[in-house]
Specification:
Layout lengths: L6 E5 L5 H16 L5 H11 L2 H9 L3 E8 L2 E10 L11 E9 L8 H15 L4 E7 L3 H9 L3 E10 L2 E11 L10
Parallel strand pairs: 4-5
Antiparallel strand pairs: 1-2, 2-3, 3-4, 5-7, 6-7
Helix pairs in contact: 1-3
Length: about 180
């Protein structure tokens, strides 16, 4: 795993919509821009990562946002959604890691590991039995990271980016607890 940072993780509030929009757009563009046209990226980013869209998502009672910060600087965030999942994801009480974004300067320094631990702790608090996510099939670093955390591929789904159809892997893992109640 990664080296530990003095990371603070907090729940996002309504006033964080601009910050979430900035982090989301930045990290999404870092991942997908080289593979897509500027028009496709602009269309998707304006729809998915506007401050207004983030405000709507923050108001969703089925969602929680966790912001990871180092010395007051936002290193990344995760959006967690509770509820339904694609048929390939089996479980009764499900938590989706709908977004898991870590800014480039913090990759490989422990921010992702600590943010994932916070996500899994949220799954435990919500008494979920399965956590799941989807990841672009060509994001090999992210896939390797999720596998280290016990996520396994359970299916594939299409992802529309502008006029380009891309494939995402569906990955899931049981929310297991040790004898002390800590998530493993």
């Amino acid at each position: 795993m990664e080296t530990a940072l003095p990371l603070q993780i907090r729940r996002a509030t309504a006033s964080d919509s601009v910050l979430l929009a900035e982090i989301g757009a930045e990290t999404f563009a870092d991942t997908f821009a080289a593979e897509n046209t500027p028009e496709n990226m602009a269309a998707y980013l304006s729809a998915a990562f506007s401050a207004a869209q983030q405000a709507r998502e923050l108001a969703d009672p089925a969602s929680r946002f966790l912001i990871a910060a180092v010395a007051g600087l936002a290193a990344g965030y995760a959006r967690l959604r509770f509820g339904p999942a694609p048929a390939a994801v089996a479980g009764e009480k499900l938590m989706e890691i709908a977004r898991f974004y870590v800014r480039k300067p913090w990759i490989g320094k422990g921010a992702a590991a600590q943010l994932m631990q916070a996500c899994m702790s949220e799954a435990q608090r919500a008494e979920c039995d399965v956590a799941w996510l989807d990841v672009w099939e060509r994001n090999f670093r992210a896939i390797a990271f999720y596998r280290k955390w016990g996520f396994a591929e359970v299916g594939v789904q299409a992802f529309q980016l502008g006029d380009d159809l891309q494939r995402d892997l569906l990955m899931a893992r049981a929310v297991k607890r040790d004898a002390g109640g800590a998530v493993r």
